[in-house]
Specification:
The protein contains 4 helices and 12 strands, in the order E-E-E-E-H-E-E-H-H-E-E-E-E-E-E-H. The protein has 215 residues and is an alpha+beta fold. It has a 4-stranded mixed sheet, with no helix packed on it. A 4-stranded mixed sheet has the order 3-9-10-12, with no helix packed on it. Strands 5-6-7-8 form a 4-stranded antiparallel sheet, covered by helices on one side.
Amino acid sequence: MTDLPKISPADNGPLIVENPPLITGSDGAEVETGPKAALCRCGLSAKKPFCDGSHNQAGFDSTPDHSKLRNTPMEVTGTVEGVEVGISYTPAICTHAAKCQAHAAAVFDPKQRPWIQPEKGRLAEIVEAVATCPSGALRISLGDVPGQHMTTGTVGIEIEKDGPYHVTNVSLDAEFNGAEASRTKYSLCRCGLSKNKPFCDGTHYDKKWSDSQTA
């Protein structure tokens, strides 16, 4: 039986991936690895996505600071095409990938209050928006069906340009922080700046981090 892939964050060090699944670079190409890979999470390696030891030189600290996280989910409901739709959003694990806005711009609009308004969209596009949320920050309930993250069966790690590692269906040896966090799709910090390590909290976007940065 083939061993399943697993990710273990090293203290003050890289993400250790055993039996790596398909890893896709920001250019869409497969990233080749051996039976084990050490992925940079301090943001400073010159060999990204792999670790080159820069975390030691930089004094990288992997300790999270949960005191500044908005970890209480936002809950909204609306009737869409005769179906009651509930959407839950957890800020602490949002990566600002904006996939939801790309699929349902009228529903997920930061300029409106509240910024999520289900009744402004079509059911299919709302479901697609939640399904494409890479971090599990969004959940959807439809009628009597309880909240779901809409995770597919794909197993892999996708690297976002100037952003985090988006992981699907890979075991993570770490405590999951984030209300209603998904265990099957989540995003791991790659810039070293997140307050919710090992998870991405969107700080790379706020700080305009670039993955061309090195120590």
